[in-house]
Design a protein that fits this description.
mainly alpha
Length: about 160
């Protein structure tokens, strides 16, 4: 059985992979710098983000599962956030074995400050291109995300 190799497809695949890798690495570095300027590590920021998305309160075990971390690792992360005054830990009223993490006003403010800085950078980047180029970029990225999600759901990825 022979496999037909399409050189144009192979070149496009290689170019896309290279671009995606560059974009992801650049994004991670830039985000880490913005978070660092606000005295947060990326994992700490993502915990605050999770809490914001969950209405400011979430069981610690659920946060750990969402971030693919052990409960012990998440506990250490949350303790550091608590020491910074960004979250509070409390035993669950319904399950004494469970710990609820709550976002403090300082935690919400810190999250929003990082988010504002990140969005300002995106705004500055988008201001460098025309409205039609922005719409093209958004449309292409949305299509890519849609195709990847539909054709290759994360539930099929082996860790």
């Amino acid at each position: 059985m022979s496999i037909d190799v399409n050189p144009e497809l192979e070149q496009d695949v290689s170019q896309l992979w290279s671009l995606l890798f560059t974009i992801v690495l650049d994004g991670e570095k830039r985000m880490a710098a913005y978070m660092g300027a606000h005295q947060l590590t990326p994992p700490q920021f993502y915990v605050l983000k999770t809490l914001m998305e969950r209405g400011g309160r979430c069981p610690i075990g659920e946060i750990a599962r969402q971030h693919h971390l052990t409960n012990a690792t998440m506990t250490g992360l949350v303790k550091r956030l608590e020491a910074l005054g960004l979250v509070m830990r409390e035993q669950s009223a319904t399950d004494r074995r469970s710990v609820e993490v709550s976002l403090t006003a300082s935690g919400e403010a810190r999250f929003l400050a990082v988010q504002i800085d990140l969005m300002e950078q995106v705004r500055m980047i988008f201001s460098l291109v025309s409205a039609s180029e922005r719409q093209d970029l958004i449309r292409y990225l949305a299509r890519y995300v849609e195709m990847i999600g539909a054709q290759f759901p994360l539930t099929n990825v082996q860790s």
